Sequence to fold (307 residues):
Amino acid sequence: MSQQIPIAFVDQVKDNILMLSQQKPAKLRMTCRPESVTGDTMFVERIGPKDAQPRGARHGATPISDADHSRRQLLMVDYVVPADIIDKPDKLKMLIDPQSPYARNQVFSLNRQIDDVVIAALGGITRGGHTGGTTINFHDVGESRLIQSDGTIRATGSDWSDVTETPLTIAKLLTCKQLLDDAEIDDERQRWFLCNPFNLNQLMNTTEVKSADYNTVKALAQGKIDSFMGFNFIKSTRLVADDTDTGATKCYAFAQDAIVLAVAEEPTVSIDLRPDLLNSTQIFSTLSIGATRVEGPAVVGILLDTA
Fold:
């Protein structure tokens, strides 16, 4: 900043700083189960379902079976936003104090980093076992189900393949719902659908969504889709293309708390004087978080046409 700040000297007419358009909040944090952690590693304990059985003979032996107890490892990562430096003489020549907007700008960057970490947890590898030594892929048997870009369900244990890309449709939403229902995901848990702006616009253009009979929240009248078919929609430009089907974007239908987000340090902004830089003001921001997928069947991955 110290090399560019002369553009804000007092010969300008404006007395405020325009914050250019960008994603400001962390959109996905509310979808996760929050945890606080001290240290660089955390384990999340899990217990699977058990089946009942007939009681058996009178005075018979008590039946015993171990519950399916497993765990997932979560690794903490420290993030920083490179510092902004404000020279003291420059502040004297400005009508505005740049510290606050520069600090807010850095917090927005950290909020986007939180979303990136959650997205990586939704569709990336996770680690299981007593010490976290077992690698679990997104598409492994017993983990998440995948839907191809053409709308077909990928075989259990198979990763995505390159097919003809098509955008989001009602039929694809129904397939996502079916896979979550088949996995016995509790109806009480909020369900989310995360996709890019193009596919959300494609969905809004379908006859069913345009009809008030189908959409009680009047999404088109509001210019957005809040909820439809049991999903709350989240629009994100942070999603990435698939490595194999490069013309498709990886999107996700998932249930509340399928991801655990652990926070060791909230977004923190430090504003300090730097005697080594002629008492310039330094604005520096840090964050320490980690996330992991703790319930694979509660996440459905779906490839959708990028544009």
